[in-house]
Amino acid sequence: MSQEGVGVDLETSLGYLLKEASSALRVAMEEVLRPLGMSVTHYSCLELLAQRPGLSNSELARGAFVTRQTMNVLLQTLERDGYVTRPAEAPVGKALPARLTPRGRRSLEKASAAVRSVEAGMLAGLTGTEQSEAFRILRSMIHSLRGADEGA
Amino acid sequence: MSQEGVGVDLETSLGYLLKEASSALRVAMEEVLRPLGMSVTHYSCLELLAQRPGLSNSELARGAFVTRQTMNVLLQTLERDGYVTRPAEAPVGKALPARLTPRGRRSLEKASAAVRSVEAGMLAGLTGTEQSEAFRILRSMIHSLRGADEGA
DNA sequence: CAAGCTATGTCAGAATGCTGACATGAGTCA
DNA sequence: TGACTCATGTCAGCATTCTGACATAGCTTG
Predict the structure, then answer these.
(1) Is the model's pLDDT at B34 over the cut of 60?
(2) Rounded to the nearest 5°, which phi and psi values hold at A128?
């Protein structure tokens, strides 16, 4: 029963809508980053390092929502191409603090501007109040999703 | 200037928060789907077919936010394993309408329940009003992101 | 009717990300 | 001190997804 014209609760699912929004954001970011020869993860890594110099590979991975193995591969490429530097030896423990080179900083500038304009566009139709609401609501969702199994 | 403890507007970026929420949702979904031997895209495809029987490969791809090539690979696997069926010849045009088999429907049942519980958990801390707000806001974001270059 | 445009299905190769595994450095605790 | 636990960096192999390309079906337009 219920075949064709049914309610189709994909249309009312906040999970689906969240995925849709995230997908749209990713597509829009890829679109502006492609001309700069940069992927979203690539950009995320540089932006993280710009705002928090000295992050380790594992910390960058968590910040960019990828595994540390994935970030490691990316970091090696970025290091080889002269966008970031890491000391040969860890000052403490095993964690190697990464930093942007001048070249990395330069490369990030255009990308950062492009991404900010994408984000600004995304928020164009929203009032400041709505943006605050969105912030609060998304935070709550994240908290609920993570707390479910970490707390148990 | 401004090195360590700076504002770090990743903390205030709605784009970053959106990515974080989406990542948390994906992780939570993978977690409950893994025991069922199902990936998120796998599940998405079955759920789409359950709610809208007869969708074509390209339509499924758009609904699951992947390319039609990716969905084609998945569909071939699902067809081989007896979860979906497609006619040998297209009734019209080239589009092959796909449908769930009884086995596919059975397999989807547990997965659907699991995913719904994840979504319910995600919304646990939110009032009905907040959920409506979230819905409206996400819709606006999607509209703004897509309209930017499709309208130009 | 013919040409052009768009959408579709599909194959092939490349890029990207993940899981598994191992070794190392640091903190904890008996 | 020695064993245990945890986090880290890294290598290797695999899975997933993407881009590029091609042929075909249907519509549109002159």
Answers:
(1) yes
(2) -60, -40
Q: Name which of A51, A130, A135 is nearest B17 (Cβ-Cβ).
A: A135
Residues of B within 8 A of A34 (CB-CB) are none
Per residue in B86-145, pLDDT (tens digit) is 999 888 889 999 999 999 999 999 999 999 999 999 999 999 999 999 999 999 999 999
Separation of alpha carbons B139 and B152, rounded Å: 20
Q: How many CB pairs under 8 A join A and B?
A: 163
| Residue in chain A nearest B50 by alpha carbon | A3
- DSSP track, chain A: ---SSS--GGGT-HHHHHHHHHHHHHHHHHHHHGGGT--HHHHHHHHHHHHSTT--HHHHHHHHTS-HHHHHHHHHHHHHTTSEE--SS-SSSS----EE-HHHHHHHHHHHHHHHHHHHHHTTT--HHHHHHHHHHHHHHHHHHHHHHH--
The answer to whether the CB of B47 falls within 8 A of the CB of A10 is yes
Q: Are A29 and A68 in contact, with CB atoms under 8 Å apart?
A: no
DSSP structure class, residue B13: -
Domains of chain A: 11-147 (1.10.10.10)
Q: How many Cα neighbours within 13 Å face the side chain of A116?
A: 10
C-beta atoms of B53 and A140 within 8 A: no
